[in-house]
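Reviewer 2 asked us to include a model.

Predict the structure of this chain.
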Amino acid sequence: MAMDTGLGQTRLNISPAGGAARGAGVGLDGVARGINADQGAEFRRLLEQATSTQAPRATVAGVAADKLKFSAHAIDRMKSRGISFKPETMRDIEAAVKKAAAKGSRDTLVLAGDAALIVSVKNNTVVTVMDRAAMKDNVFTNIDSTVVI
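Predicted model (structure tokens):
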């Protein structure tokens, strides 16, 4: 995962691990294996940040009003289809999910430009992402709302 900042914009690019050996990672003893110490320390910092207990967040219709999460499946689809979102598009997608939550939606289809996202509103999680080519001739089921941005 890399973050590219330039011209006042930030774009999150998710890419496969750069050449790390299979089985590389941090063991249960906290020792980095197959990666350098800087990567191990960065991983540990991110893991602690992600798992730290935080104060309760505000909710919208019972849904946490924090950042939208992406499932592993959605991240895989974004990687394989070369899909990324600019920060302003991410804000629009998050606003669309909040609108769906306010209307009582459980699962919504968000149409954002040439991308479609299936979002579990209850879990505030993007379940899958597809581009226009993958949308063609597709039937979207088990959704109770659609938001076009």
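Residues 28 and 56 are 29 Å apart (CA to CA). The chain has two domains: 2-51, 59-148. We have added this to the supplementary material.
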